[in-house]
Amino acid sequence: MFTYLPKKRGSLYTRVTSNLVRPIYEHKSKAVDGFSKQHNVYILIYFEQHPTTPNAIQREKKVKHWSRKWKLDLVEKENLGWRDLYEEAA
Q1: What is the enclosing helix (H) or strand (E) of 6?
Q2: pTM for the whole thing?
């Protein structure tokens, strides 16, 4: 299970998935209606792997309640250049 943060321009959001490649592909191809399609959220800037679904969900809930600054600090700690990590995840 993965907790991940995709972004486009100023939009950041936190999600959970068991297959990291599929939802990022869907974001990039705008295959699914919703927040990511509306806001062009398609760059994978951060992800974490978790041993269980409950662990991933717990982390997602925790990160969602963080301030924007804390989320930015989390990303910059691991991905200072804000590279798209999609190819690394695939």
Answers
A1: strand 2-8
A2: 0.80
